[in-house]
Specification:
This is Cupin domain-containing protein. With about 120 residues, the protein is mainly beta. The chain has one helix and eight strands; from the N terminus they run αββββββββ. Strands 1, 2, 3, 4, 5, 6, 7 and 8 form an eight-stranded mixed β-sheet that branches. It is globular and about 40 Å long. The termini are close together.
């Protein structure tokens, strides 16, 4: 990753498909990713790491087994390691994610919704 200035909105404009994470930059052993979400994802967990969600635009519901967490623009929520969750976006949502390098978007669930991390131009 270069030491150039990156713009979150410009990066999100380059994201063409929902649920495809793109690396914005890296900090130590963590990736800062941007993504656009729409619809319901898959129930999954990340057994070895927390996952930080920051909503840029829209409303994101992070479904947990015991409650729903609703995030709007500028809201941040951390899903603790090992906690099963399922993100849902009734309308398009733009987000920033922070998680250790190599974290797979579907966590322990795998399956056809698993996407490789893409690089931004």
């Amino acid at each position: 990753m270069t030491d150039d200035v990156r713009n979150i909105r410009t990066a999100l404009d380059a994201v063409a498909h929902h649920w495809q994470p793109h690396r914005l930059t890296s900090v130590n052993d963590y990736d800062v990713k941007v993504a656009k979400l729409h619809g319901e994802f898959v129930w999954h967990s990340h057994p070895d790491t927390d996952e930080l969600f920051l909503v840029v635009e829209g409303t994101l519901t992070i479904q947990l087994r015991d409650r729903d967490v609703v995030l709007g623009p500028s809201d941040v929520f951390v899903v603790p390691r090992g906690v099963e969750h399922c993100p849902r976006a009734d309308d398009e949502v733009s987000i920033v994610l922070v998680e250790p390098r190599g974290t797979v978007n579907t966590g322990d669930a795998g399956g056809d919704r698993t996407e490789p991390l893409r690089e931004l131009p």
